[in-house]
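Dear support,

We are seeing what looks like truncated structure output for some complexes. This example has two components. We would appreciate it if you could run it in full and send us the complete token output so we can diff it against ours.
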Amino acid sequence: MKIPLSWLKDYIEIDLPLLDLARTLTMAGLEVEEIQLVGLPDPYAGLPADTPREFKVTGLSWQPDKIVVAQIDEVMPHPNADRLVLCRLNDGTGEIIVLTGAPNLFEYKGKGPLPKPIKVAYAREGARIYDGHQPGQVLTTLKRARIRGVDSFSMVCSEKELGISDEHEGIILLDDDAPTGVPLVDYMGDAVLEVSILPNMIRNASMIGVARELAALLGKPLRYPQAKLPEKGPSMKGKAAIRITDPTLNPRFVLGLVEGVTPQPSPYWVQRRLRLAGMRPINSVVDATNYVMLELGEPLHAFDYDVLVRRAGGGSPTIITRAAEPGEKLTTLDGVERTLEPFTVLVCDTAGPLSLAGVMGGLESEVSPQTRTVLLEGAAWNFVNVRRTAFHQRLNSEAAYRFSRGVHPALAEQGVVLCLQRMAEWSGGQVYADLVDEYPLPPQDPEIRLSEADVRRLLGIELNAGQIAEILNRLEFTCRVEGDEVLAKTPPHRLDIGSGETGKADLIEEIARIYGYQNIPSTRLADPLPLPRSDAALEVEKQVRQALIRFGLQEVINYRLTAPQREMRLYPPENRPPEPAYLTLRNPLNPERAVMRRSLLASLLDTLEKNARLSERLALFEIGPVFWPRQDQVLPDEPIFVAIALSGLRQPPAWDNARPPYYDFFDLKGILECLGSDLHLQPLRFEPAAHPSLHPGKSAELFSGDVRLGVFGELHPLVKEQYDLLTPPVIVAELDMQAILASRQSRRETQPVPVFPPVLEDIAVIVDEDVPAVEVEKAIWQGGGKMLRAVRLFDIYRGEQIGAGKKSLAYSLTYQADDHTLTAAEAAQIRQRIIRRLEQQVNARLRG
Amino acid sequence: MNDSENILEELDRILQNGLDALQQIQDEAQLVGWRTAHLGRSAPVMQVFARMGSIPKELRQQVGQKANQVKVALENALEERAAVLRREALERKLTAERLDVTLPGRLPAFGRAHPATQALDEICAIFIEMGFQIYRSPEVETEEMNFELLNIPAHHPARDMWDTFHTTTPGVILRTHTSPGQIRAMREMAPNPIRVILPGMVYRYEQTNASHEMQFNQVELLAVGQHITFADLKGTLESFARRMFGENARTRFRPSYFPFTEPSAEVDMECFICGGKGCGVCRGSGWLEIGGCGMVHPVVLQNGGYDPAVYSGFAAGLGPERIAMLKYHIEDIRYFWANDIRFLEQF
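Here is the complete output from our reference environment:
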């Protein structure tokens, strides 16, 4: 909402400097987003350079000595140019001849000395103004020039040149009482505050609304415009009737009439205010409706009364408000034929629809330059219907903006009266002495009982009932103090105050705003703390994240939104499962982000792909939810997974180790083993896996105790081809966080540090190639008994020495007793038992 | 008499010869040779011991003592020389072993948490210190949880504040804020006091650009009890700002509007980059918006199972990515989920 300072001053005396004014509004919830100077000096000028620019300031300051009010006493033809004139101008210091091409002076050309001088905005040599001939706002300084043989060093200005609007058709013609020679800034210097209106503050989308807030904040009186119907004049009886079919859609409808108007350009100050507020002046009739809407916040609509009479077959028109019939059509004043929905409310007459209620008028009954009698509508509408209509028709009119947020029906009458008066002032004509007013559903302006304790309880400040009432009074609540309670009646201009506890909260917010949030103290929570509460899932997630980071992996976080075909890349093209059920967006931003991911691994591989050419070593993981819709639930399951991907160099390359080996299966297995011991999971078990995404010979399922944690291994070459990746193999894992949580050991014990020295020895056994290492190790442990403390595989050998189809596994063994030093004989016994077991269980023979 | 005097003189010579020879020794090998020559079995001083029998009885003690002194003196000299040589050798070695210390170090493989995780953890840790507990809730929500129960009825103007991703399941949406967690937490915990933080991913139907994302994290605070005031809200967020941004961090509360809180406020923090003087980050204003907050709306309390006439509460929402962007001067919010390793490795 653009608020010209000069307009605001019609309703309240303001002596605050601009920045203080902007701050006062901002700190009350009317955030000033920008201050646009229209002549006034820059509030930051003259302040130290490091003063924070709390507010964005734009626009033009008019130099008092360079830009002044002047008068043109005669307009003369230019000797060499038809499209230019020479003005005999007085700027208060003397007479100057000024050259201009302004078309709105041509009518005075060659008429000799003017009986009534024309007042203009005059810029002297050296004035800084905007260049009128360039698009946008380009600053320029007036310099002496010779145009078509005439010296020119100063000019009469258009609105564009002074930064008032983008109007450059003609020069500004000031009102006749403008004082010649006075700096223009003193006569009409202004600033426009761009105020952001919160959704619950639509009452402030008007000059009076903002002025009322200021009045409350500054403790100053508010001057309402004085408007009333003429005491004498024709009556509307028999001139128009109103029929409201559904008061919940249309709680009030008011009509007023003015006849004998002549639509004409509005007075300059009206046009200027409209432009500063962001609206385009049309003519004095339309401008009056817009002006009063901006002034009061009540959108109004002017009908050409004679058109309505014609539509009524020469009789008196009846205005009917109703919901649209399905498929009904109306051409709005923007020339668009619109097909209507049943939620749209229409203003009709007996001949059919006239306008979209609260949104936009119809083309046919619009006022025109020929209009002589205006039937003026002020009404109240159900905000939901207006909102739905404006949304559906993609119409963001000023009226819809306000009505879709709720305008109090009391404003309908005030608006009509005020507008009739302004219309007659600016267009001539006779205002009728009464209104037609149908008001079937007045709102219940809530009356709220608020106690001192309520305020204390919610705000933590002590205000007595008198102080509470005083604050609310300033916002025009009608208050009665009863002991420590205030009975506050909502003023008839706002619909945002509820009843009951909500009403109390609404009032308390108003008290806090006016009291000032900055004046409320800051305290530490004193209320009792809740019981401690643990979230095991969150804790284990943190542990996994911390562990993987310690193991050298980088965490990534992806979009949860993806596309099914993107996830399908996880499968070899010839081995794709049917597409699973996705949680699908009805309104995706793009097809690449149309469903919620089902696979975290797919998500992670996308990231790996993006980084494949950026780093020689990629060790990534992600922890996060996937989304699995379920037939039997409204909401999908959101299980949390951890996905890991390794690819490229095993270690960061260094100057003495330029090509470390690539990551392989055992790197990831080692990470998972460390994860198991770091989180104290039940002992891990690895079994060969058959997973379509993974290399059949280089993948495993991971179990902890009886719980399956997930699967890992090298990406299947056919899957890898689906991604834009380089040579190194890609090793991936996907583990279920819930399973990790379930496999944590509930209890664990530490072992005492051994006192007696260990016996270390190596053993190498030859087994068939297909015997898994884990079986060999199991036999060693079983044979070794409790004295065997550690088994470590340190070498694998295949070769001619031991024959084809065989492998030799060499282990380093540690024997130890808790209570004595092992003798050589004992060690030999253990060794013999181990060898026997190996021979029996895995058909091993000792390597010589 | 002459003989014995000769022997004593000879011992002096032996000592002197030994010491002179020792001074010429330059390394360990020569030292071993010297030891054999001057302290070995056939060394001159040892020969004197061997000849003791032939020395007159009355002189034996004197010669014996002298010979011993010579032997000990040679041994000590040997030790000293050996020590000197070791020290010299070490110094030569250290001099020879000088590295180019400007060569790059060998990097351990080390990982990092994603910057959003780091920001989230940092924020949560501060509130956990204040007694808040983490509470998580689903990212896919019903419209009822995300809007209606939070006092945002259908067709209410406030709905415009959230651009929503709808799903093909009617009434199911991607949550636009973590606030539905408020209702879930309240319904789970009523009528007990609540102090929870609701961290997590939220979604907005919004074209992405440098400052807008379709997905981002939020951290929401919720405190409910019988004596919780707006002053507590101010105090809590001010403490947070000081812990997060330093003891001098000043905050400012501006009235605002959220349907699920009343009174509502926008929290600004004095720009920590420029100390409030105005800079590019705060667009010259000296203030940075860090979140929204307010007292829990009575309707929301009611929907959560708390009688608003008895209980009150506050809620606040912060944007971890936004805070990280401010703190680390990240210019484009899209960096977060683009996961370019060159970005991630800077954290």
